[in-house]
Amino acid sequence: MLPATKIKLCKLLMFFILLIAPLLYAILSVFLTPRAINQHRSDGGDGSTGRVITLQAELHALDLGTNTMKLDWTLVDDNALSCNTGDSASECDAVLPVDIYFDTNLLVPSGEERNTSNVPPTTPVFNYNATAFVRNKHSNAVVFHTDLDVENVGSSGALSYPFDSYYSIIFAFAREQQPNGTETDVTLRISYTAGVLLGFSVDSDASVLSDGDGSNDVLNRIVIRRSDSVRTYALIIVIGIWIITLMMCVSVMYSWLFGYLQRVELLLIPPATIFTFTQLRATLPGAPADFGTILDIAGILPCMMLMVISAAVAISIVVFSDPTKDRETWLTRFFNQPATTKVKEADDDDVQQMGNRAQV
User: Where, by residue number, does the polypeptide cross the bilayer (predicted)?
Assistant: First the structure.
């Protein structure tokens, strides 16, 4: 091929690489970027009657070290709230306070407090006073905070990184405080669950549980998985580490077993690469600090073991021989010995035949 043609093909190839690589990355970033929570709600047509309290949840943080998920709750609607700032105090006082309860066994206990029974909760997580909300400008905001307990989905825990998944369950109900000191159930709903967790994809499945008295409770299951971008990056890193390891092993084995000449710089790559693998492992988003995940067992640890062996062999080649020159090794002598013997026997036969002809 002519040099001018090679230059044109090289320029064309570089142009396509410079054009396709950013375009492909832009397309992948659109599909792999973490998105808001995927919701599956069934809060309509539940047959609830009477007062309905509607909440909105916002997911803020996930701490897998303490198995804790942090959510902020906002009361967004109360269908019994008919009074406003222009109404009389007696009209607003008709809207009774509501206590919102959560299953305390599904929450992370604060301090040393820990529930040791399955009796219904008696301490509300939040007390909502509609009259104070409307009539008193100094009333607190209708927001509250909960820390949910996080569990593994089956056997998929931190050891399954980056294919680990987790879940949290929310069970909540609301009770209206009556003037005689008793409480009656009212319907509680979750209208929307917002929030984005970097490196995770979140699914929320909210449903209602009917009490048979016209009121409903909330049951919500939040499932958390590693995002596709994290899984793709982790797999690419492991595949790349395996390719580098195998190439280095083959290069070192060729020089050691068959005596092929190698540049000294190439044989010094395995010792330096050992520390590079640990640095690449540290870049994995959300990976456990300790080694032992399925990614480590299938990729990082065996590659580091092979690279250590290759580094030891490479250093011995540099120290005890000259890798820049072809040399005979014990393996080449082993394979060449039979061939040398056969050539010698053939030469002896030729000499004997020539001697016989000379005698004749």
Answer: 12-32, 233-257, 297-320
* Range from 116-125, 187-196, 207-216 carrying the lowest mean pLDDT: 207-216
Antiparallel, parallel or unpaired: β 165-177 and 183-194: antiparallel
pLDDT tens profile 39-70: 655 544 455 667 888 898 888 889 988 889 99
**Bridge partner residues of 172 (DSSP):** 102, 218
Q: Is 100 a residue whose pLDDT tops 90? A: yes
Q: Is the pTM above the cut of 0.85? A: no
- CA–CA gap between residue 301 and residue 275 (Å, rounded): 12
List alpha helices for the chain, DSSP H.
Answer: 3-32, 89-93, 130-135, 228-258, 264-267, 269-282, 294-295, 301-320, 330-359
Could you give the dihedral angle defined by the CA atoms of residues 311, 314, 318 and 320, in that order, rounded to the nearest 10 degrees?
A: 110
With contact defined as beta carbons under 8 Å apart, do 80 and 130 qualify? yes
Task: Indicate if the pLDDT at residue 99 is higher than 90.
Answer: yes
- Which tokens is 273 given? 């690469």
For residues 136 and 144, give the distance between their C-alpha atoms in angstroms, rounded to a whole number: 19
Q: Are 233 and 285 in contact (CB under 8 A)?
A: yes
- With beta carbons less than 8 A apart as the criterion, state whether 228 and 32 touch: yes
Burial call 79-89: b when 16+ CB within 10 Å, e when fewer: ebbebeeeeee
Task: Tokens for 63, please give them.
Answer: 């701490």
- Closest by CA to 33, choosing from 199, 159, 192, is 199
The letter for the amino acid at 23 is L
Backbone angles phi, psi at 320, to 5 degrees: -100, 0
What pLDDT, on the 0 to 100 scale, is given for residue 339? 44
| In contact, 100 and 188? CB cutoff 8 Å | yes
Q: 135: which 2 tokens?
A: 């009539």
Question: Of 33, 84, 19, nearest to 196 (Cα)?
Answer: 33
CA distance linking residue 116 with residue 287, whole number of Å: 33
The rounded mean pLDDT for the chain is 78
CA distances from 177 to 82, 125, 185, 295 (A): 18, 15, 9, 54
